[in-house]
C-alpha cells in the first residue's frame, strides 16, 4: 500500500497557507507524493508550484481539475510548467467536479460530463507525452519547448462511465471518501472495464480523511467534509448501514450543512475515514488494502492538529521504501 498526502482538498476555513505547511511536513517525513487539489480558493498549478518550491523531494499531482473549466492544452501545459520550475515530476488528475462548482463558481456549462472527461483524458494523455520540437497541438505552427511533466495521468471516477474513461486512458484512478466495501466493488468494475479495452488496470487510489488520536475539532472538520455525501447514491447506503439513517433522511429533506453536521455524531467519521488511535487507523488501512486499494492519499485533519502533524507522523513509517 502506497501512502501519499493531500495538501489541499475541499474548501474549509483553515488558514490559506495550511496546504504549504502540510506539504512541507510530508516532505520532511519522507512521503513521496503530495496532491495539490483545486477549488474556489487555490489554483492547483500555482499551489503545486509553491509546494514544489517549499519542498525538496516530493513529486506533485495537481488536481483533480474540472475538465469543463480547463481545456486539455491548459492542463498539460500547466503540469509541464510546474515541472520546469521545480525540477521534479508533476502529474495531473482530471475530474468532472460538480454542477455547484462548474456552473455556480465558474459560470461554465456542465453538460455531458462523462463525454467531456473522456475527450479530455485522451487529449491530455497525448499532450503529456509530447516531446520538445513537436507541434504543440496537431496542425499548430507553434512547437513544444518544454519537456514532458513526467508524472502520471489520474482520472477521478465513481460512476460506470467515468470508470471506463479511467480504464482506457489513466495511469491511476482516484476515488474520493469511500468505504472498503465500495473499494471492493469499484476495483472489480475497473478491472472489467480495463479488460474490455485490453489494458492493464490502472492503479487504484483514494483520498481518505484521516486523524490519529483526533481532537473534537478534528472530527468536526472531517464530518464537515463528508456531509455532502449523505444523499449521493452509493454513499447514503454506507451511512445507513453504519447506523446513521436518520441523518440520511434529514439530508434528503434539504437540511442545511450545519444542521446535518449537528445531526452526525463523532463516530460517523468512522464510516468513510481513517480515525482513531494508531493501531485502529493501521487496521483500517489494512482493510482498504485487502479490498483492493493500491494507494491511500491521506487528507489529514488540521483542525486541532496544525499541518496534520500528529497524523502524518504516526503514519510516516508506512511509506514504502
Automatic annotation (TrEMBL):
It is an enzyme of class 1 (oxidoreductase). It comes from the Bacteria. GO terms for molecular function: oxidoreductase activity, acting on paired donors, with incorporation or reduction of molecular oxygen. InterPro entries: F420-G6PD/mer, F420_Rv3093c, Luciferase-like_dom, Luciferase-like_sf. Keywords: Oxidoreductase. Residues 9-294 form the Luciferase-like domain. SUPFAM superfamilies: Bacterial luciferase-like. Its EC number is 1.-.-.-. Pfam families: Bac_luciferase (PF00296). This is LLM class F420-dependent oxidoreductase.
Amino acid at each position: 500500500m502506497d501512502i501519499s498526502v493531500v495538501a489541499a482538498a475541499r474548501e474549509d476555513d483553515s488558514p490559506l497557507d495550511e496546504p504549504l505547511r502540510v506539504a512541507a511536513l510530508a516532505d520532511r517525513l519522507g512521503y513521496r507524493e503530495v496532491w495539490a487539489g483545486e477549488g474556489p480558493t487555490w489554483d492547483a498549478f500555482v499551489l503545486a508550484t509553491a509546494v514544489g518550491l517549499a519542498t525538496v523531494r516530493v513529486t506533485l499531482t495537481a488536481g483533480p481539475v474540472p475538465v469543463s473549466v480547463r481545456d486539455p492544452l491548459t492542463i498539460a501545459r500547466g503540469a509541464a510548467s510546474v515541472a520546469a520550475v521545480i525540477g521534479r515530476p508533476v502529474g495531473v488528475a482530471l475530474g468532472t467536479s460538480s454542477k455547484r462548482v462548474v456552473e455556480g463558481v465558474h459560470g461554465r456549462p456542465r453538460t455531458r460530463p462523462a463525454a467531456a472527461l473522456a475527450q479530455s483524458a485522451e487529449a491530455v494523455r497525448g499532450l503529456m507525452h509530447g516531446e520538445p520540437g513537436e507541434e504543440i497541438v496537431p496542425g499548430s505552427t507553434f512547437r513544444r519547448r518544454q519537456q514532458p511533466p513526467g508524472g502520471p495521468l489520474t482520472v477521478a471516477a465513481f460512476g460506470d462511465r467515468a470508470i471506463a474513461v479511467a480504464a482506457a486512458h489513466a495511469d491511476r484512478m482516484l476515488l474520493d471518501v469511500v468505504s472498503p466495501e465500495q473499494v471492493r466493488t469499484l476495483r472489480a468494475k475497473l478491472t472489467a472495464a480495463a479488460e474490455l479495452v485490453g489494458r492493464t488496470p490502472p492503479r487504484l487510489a483514494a483520498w481518505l480523511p484521516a486523524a490519529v488520536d483526533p481532537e473534537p475539532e478534528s472530527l468536526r472538520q472531517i464530518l464537515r467534509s463528508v456531509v455532502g455525501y449523505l444523499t449521493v447514491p452509493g454513499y447514503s447506503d454506507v451511512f445507513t448501514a453504519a447506523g446513521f439513517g436518520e441523518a440520511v433522511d434529514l439530508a434528503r429533506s434539504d437540511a442545511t450543512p450545519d444542521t446535518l453536521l449537528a445531526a452526525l455524531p463523532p463516530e460517523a467519521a468512522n464510516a468513510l475515514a481513517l480515525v482513531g488511535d494508531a493501531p485502529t487507523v493501521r487496521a483500517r488501512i489494512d482493510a482498504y488494502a485487502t479490498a483492493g486499494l493500491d494507494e491511500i492519499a491521506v487528507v489529514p485533519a488540521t483542525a486541532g492538529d496544525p499541518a496534520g502533524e500528529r497524523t502524518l507522523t504516526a503514519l510516516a513509517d508506512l511509506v514504502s521504501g
